[in-house]
Please model this.
Amino acid sequence: MKKSIGRPAKYKEIIQNLVDNDVYTPATIAAFAAEYNFLDGVESVELQKRRVRITLGRFSCRFFPDEGDGRVTLKGQAPTPGWFGWRWKYGYLDGYGLLE
Model:
């Protein structure tokens, strides 16, 4: 039986490709992943985006400052705290031992 890859490692490529000085929320990272084809074709794109948002939302709530590095406004939503790409890279990747 093939061992499945855990979510932190599964999202490594997405996080590595974020722009260091751009501000991202879990939702904008999910949109980024879909736009640049980082999601696999096994499940629907919407389901995969939801999983990315949930996983990264939980991570950001636990490890990043509540106020964020900036605010991101998505159509139809209130401004949401977001964090720089470099913070995602060093926080998420280093936190899970995936930083190269």
